[in-house]
Amino acid sequence: MQERFQGKFRNGTNRRPAWDYTRPCAYFVTICTRDRVRWFGGVRNGIVCLSDVGSIVADEWTKTSVIRSNIGLDAWIVMPDHIHGIVVIRRRIVREPVAAAVIGNVSVGTPWHGAPTKTMANADGPAAATAIPRNAHHLRNWESGALGTIIQQFKRACTVRIHAAGHTEFSWQPRYFDRVIRNAMEADRIRAYIRQNPSRWTTHEQADTL
Predict the structure, then answer these.
(1) End-to-end Cα separation, the chain, in angstroms
(2) H or E segment at 83?
(3) At what angle do helices 147-164 and 52-66 cross, to 10 degrees?
(4) Virtual CA dihedral for 93, 99, 102, 108, nearest 10 degrees?
(5) Average pLDDT along the chain, 210 residues, taken 10 residues at a time
(6) Structural domains of the chain, with CATH
(7) Around 63, how many Cα atoms within 13 Å sit in the side-chain half-sphere?
(8) How many CB atoms lie within 10 A of CB 77?
(9) What does the alpha-carbon distance between residue 51 and residue 44 come to, in Å, rounded to a whole number?
(10) Does the pTM exceed 0.85?
């Protein structure tokens, strides 16, 4: 079942093309399992019953704000095949200036993971450092503390634990959905949407076994 928030939920990304994702702000995030397989449990009478895999995901999500002093968590819920959550970036992480060297007339920096690269990125990483950035904040959007990096690290931590528990076929959708929350009224609507997720699970889906 493909859920929607204001008609805009989808399995890809809804990123604003020129947005700085290190910017202090609240973000509504949805992360799905690959092919929407219901790894995380089931819903019974409007209540989510987590599987052992779902419990790992819930545990790792709560750690997001514990291990990152610049991050806060608002409403969230683990559903059978996805997780919804509001991630609050409270402040940018201050870091040293990027090292750079001049070769001829070309400035060669170390924008990500220590060195430029010509390797194309996967869906959860930055594009090639030698390519033209898709927006002015593109490289910054994959720094430590940026939303994309936080989600990438969360997914990786979950996957390591889930595979170690013997569920080696588990995987995530390569991308995720995010939405910039613009004001308190929109935040309240999204909180309500998150809380109401289990009650919207259809009768047919409620009948499925865990």
Answers:
(1) 17
(2) strand 82-89
(3) 140
(4) -60
(5) 45 55 92 96 93 97 92 95 95 54 33 30 41 46 77 96 98 94 94 93 51
(6) 25-93+146-206 (3.30.70.1290)
(7) 14
(8) 17
(9) 13
(10) no
